Amino acid sequence: MDESALLAHPMTRTRVVIIGGGFGGMTAARCLRDVDVVLIDRTNHHVFQPLLYHVATAALSPSDIAWPLRTVFRSQPNVRIVMDDVVSIDRLSREVHLRHSAPIGFDALIVAPGSCHAYPGQDNWESCAPGLKTMADAIQLRERMLLAFEEAERQKADTGSQNRLTFVIVGGGPTGVELVGSLLEIGRAAIGSDYPHLRLDDLSIILVEAGSRILPGFDPALSEKALAALERMGVTVKLNNPATAVRADGVMLGEEWIASTHVIWAAGTKASPLLDTLGVDQDPSGRVKVQPDLTISGHPWIFVIGDGAYCLDQDGRPLPGIAPVAISQGRYVATLINEERSPAHRSPFVYRDRGMLATIGRGQAVAQCGPVRASGLLAWVLWCVTHIFLLIGLRNPVRVMAEWIWSYLTFKPGARLLCKQPAIWHKKSSNNRVGKMPGKNRKPLHRAA
Amino acid sequence: MDESALLAHPMTRTRVVIIGGGFGGMTAARCLRDVDVVLIDRTNHHVFQPLLYHVATAALSPSDIAWPLRTVFRSQPNVRIVMDDVVSIDRLSREVHLRHSAPIGFDALIVAPGSCHAYPGQDNWESCAPGLKTMADAIQLRERMLLAFEEAERQKADTGSQNRLTFVIVGGGPTGVELVGSLLEIGRAAIGSDYPHLRLDDLSIILVEAGSRILPGFDPALSEKALAALERMGVTVKLNNPATAVRADGVMLGEEWIASTHVIWAAGTKASPLLDTLGVDQDPSGRVKVQPDLTISGHPWIFVIGDGAYCLDQDGRPLPGIAPVAISQGRYVATLINEERSPAHRSPFVYRDRGMLATIGRGQAVAQCGPVRASGLLAWVLWCVTHIFLLIGLRNPVRVMAEWIWSYLTFKPGARLLCKQPAIWHKKSSNNRVGKMPGKNRKPLHRAA
To answer: Are A164 and A213 in contact (CB under 8 A)?
Structure first.
């Protein structure tokens, strides 16, 4: 069978299978024409990941930044959505194997499974220091954060003092920095008004970075500016401090032990383990080394895009795992398929750098695009505009824009719902149940005379 | 100590403790002036329960109909919020005991813990047929419903057929009827467009009522109209059919067995077990028999309001457990406390019937107020207006109104997020995992030739 031809059986219609409904996979699906598309995702929705940390800090609700894939593609009858886990890819028989459904054959395959967290330490690190990749992660972090505030407020009200409310974020990349900023803002907004017994100095937020500067992907001058801004806001930043141990009650930095029941992991990622089933060359973090046309060698119609692709730019540097890269890779691959370009006639994928942005807080951001550098309010406005446009690109301009701006400006209170009391609630509180631990802290709270 | 005087120690400020942040408790807290209020709730939010079923059927998002109590009372510094479980009430020492915090003493106590589901059968009924009382219930029901549709779509796509998608709602009261109507509408909206392999007749919705008519609280003529409307919509209504057994795979009605993995309980409620700790007269369903001034006998400053109060109207009929009753009871009690009315000078609580409403579907409702009866579109408009005004009473008129109307009219897709894959997903699918069960259903789905 001629591998270079897209279609094995010309009398039937081409089927393109896409694994992953992230930025890369979704963009490809939206651009594909005149082919049957099967889009497989583990969840039923696309998440606008750049804003996921806003859900984790209860600034936005899940429905503000996520859309069901079935709704996104309602107007594209050629796209079929399958909510399932892909367990393996058989590139020779051209089939993907799913956990719950029958295997699905393909003429062309776009592999965009994204990445997951990488923990250098033992497996228990993940449970002690959850990360922020999926909506489920974000909701779990939100519950933990809200419960932490409730717990601290209750302790302070009962006993007049409380174990300092300490959040440790491991990893000084954009995620870590944005998480820290958002966390601090929510703290400031809620402490005093929502939690009258708490004071701002009950809250301490620590950003831990193994390297010598935060935002290593950015220009050193911008890293400096971001660092200064964070410290002005009251964040403790610890550079050159890799986490050497993570436990449920804190994190070890070399010799220093930081006690905290709220450690969040934003340090490292590795490509989806699904890519291992392709049986091709991978880099140490599991990314597949793709050809200039984003295919795997010997398979002109199997593409790997997004965080899972190890792809070099013109200067031979690997492209970062960010949304703009995945989106333009998705477009590129869709074009090759739409035009049925045979390998010989493909121009290599080229990523035009649209620059990088990171918010530090309201009115505070850093931006760089080629030689241009910006920081402070200007960069923040730039950030807002680009993100609103990215969001609008996805669905329902008016509504998204209205709701999102409103929510963002008002710290949408509706986002602060605690819909269940997870185990940690009971765990964290088990030591001061009524009757279980009497003694000085248990004095009934009677009217102040 | 003079029980009839509100304040035991006149030199200090009165403390009023309110148990429950539902309609009754929240209204009381909002009306109390010049006293310290401690509002205790198990969750951190107030839920607009009349619309809870919209969340359960993914028509609205949790944040559309729930507000954090701390935000609601941000502008009322005399109100302190405590998120905790009340384990018991000591009416003699005038203290409430909490699961996690120190006991709290009170001068006046308003007990408004609401009600929970009553299952006539064994305990396992609850796990097989979850009810709809809290936001957590609603979210769980939503996950189950969405997963059921995904599962049915996958089966149909793989095998061309599927076990009929059957939802059974037990209980023909307003909750059951509204749930059925909303479920059917979501089904109609999603089937075909979101789930291309499913057809409307794959979905079957069955409403089971033990009594001889649905909406027993309403005028028989309206019950008839509602029944006719439901049947026109394609709902199967089974009257005079008490559920005699509930299992994970279906429900037994007398001799008839209905297979369904989606049984929802809307049949009966009982008062919160917390009321038992008061040690006073209760009715069979656990409601406290209150005095004309809503107090418990011998304790002029301990009030029971809302679903937990067994309170008779002018004609000697017990008041129903609905929001308007709880709200006006909350206002009444707050006035007594604000005016420090001694028992001798209290006029008994009188509920002015504002009527009852129940939606059957978009443009379909029944309403009655005193002698007035309405149904169809007119009643539905009435329902929309009253609910919007009730909502506006709670928070942020503009936003709530805008968001809510918009969401309601658009079946807000954002509400349809599946943020985790609960156990049932794996349970329900474990019988068709790849490799585990080969055979005829496992044929690879290849291009239709």
So the answer is: no
Distance between CA atoms of B206 and B167, rounded to whole angstroms? 6
A436 CB within 8 Å of a chain B CB: no
Are the C-beta atoms of A8 and A1 separated by less than 8 Å? yes
The model's pTM: 0.83
Can you point out the beta strands (E) in A129-233? 165-170, 203-208
pLDDT tens digits for A190-241? Answer: 887 788 888 888 899 999 999 999 999 899 999 999 999 999 999 999 999 9
Interface of B with A in 393-432 (CB under 8 A): 395, 399, 402-403, 406, 410, 412-421, 429, 432
Distance from CA of B311 to the nearest CA of A (A): 31
Phi, psi of A234, deg, nearest 5: 105, 15
Q: Which of A178, A256, A339, A403 is catalytic?
A: A178
Q: Do residue A45 and residue B104 have CB atoms under 8 angstroms apart?
A: no
B window 133-152, beta carbon within 8 A of A: 135-136, 139, 146, 150
ipTM: 0.79
A178 secondary structure, DSSP code: H
CB contact under 8 A, B63 and A412: yes
B178 is catalytic: yes
C-alpha distances in angstroms, B98 versus A398, A436, A440, B390? 46, 12, 17, 31
Residue B18, strand partner residues: B39, B110
Measure the CA angle with vertex B193, ends B192 and B196; round to 5°. 50
User: A260: closest CA among A247, A270, A273, A271?
Assistant: A247
SS3 A259: strand
Instruction: Give yes or no for a contact between A58 and A146, defined as CB atoms under 8 angstroms apart.
Output: yes
Report pLDDT digits (tens) over B57-72: 887 778 778 888 888 8
Which sign does the torsion angle of CA A200, A202, A208, A213 carry? positive
**Is residue B158 less than 8 Å (CB to CB) from chain A?**
yes
A75 in B contact zone (CB under 8 Å): no
Residue B219 structure tokens: 């005028």
